[in-house]
Predict the 3D structure of the following.
Amino acid sequence: MTIEAIDFARLYRDHLAMAARTRKSASAWDSRAAGMAARALQSSYARDFVARMDLTGARSLLDVGCGPGTIALAVAARLERVLALDYSAAMLDALRTQAAARGLTHVQTVHRAWEDDWSDLPACDIAVASRATLVDDIGAALARLDAHARLRVYVTHPVGGHFLDPAIQHVIGRSLPSTPDYIYLVNILHRMGIHPRLDYLTQESRLAGAQDFADYAQRVAWSTGGLAEDETARLQAWYERATSAERTGAPMRWAFISWEKTPC
């Protein structure tokens, strides 16, 4: 068998199914919008992402899975038009509030999901999907991004397949299956005739800075889909004796994948 015979999009879908990962609902993201908006633009992740973008010749941007505007608002002042798309209405509300506070009147929000009809969305010079690519059909998602970009595309996808340090999973007695790694995306793009650039971003664990055990347990529960009573008890017993570094766990790594559009 040669690599050309491998259907990486199907392998991705099979892997995601085995991971049995339940996609967070729009209402779940709605509940986190206010807190995320307060931190988003100040994050080192946003700075590192934007530092790797080339805006040369670009006047417009489409940000898919934009959240509270982590990337869209960070570059909006350098562009003429920004379309920010998300399936969480509260995230878009937070983004509009932040845009208004900065006088960014050219930022337009679009309440829509990856799977919805995009036929009315115009192509933009740059398309972005930041921390928003763990979708059911990544092949279709990458094709949509490519079709809606005139110049360049930038995406990030998890490295290693875990949002919660396996050492902390062990504390609560869990062993969560991994989600599809970034290498699927690289191989799918190769099959599409695209040769992407690859880099990596490191983000502090989402457990960092928890105010107390209740906050910490809530963050762990978000990553695991909930905690049973006995799991919470094990976590608390460990939390009380663990060091700050042990509580934080390993940092999150993201693959930064980008490509230039081939001139027609």
Notes: Strands lie at 60-64, 81-86, 107-111, 124-129, 149-158, 197-203, 252-260. The chain has a mean pLDDT of 91. The first strand starts at residue 60 and ends at 64.
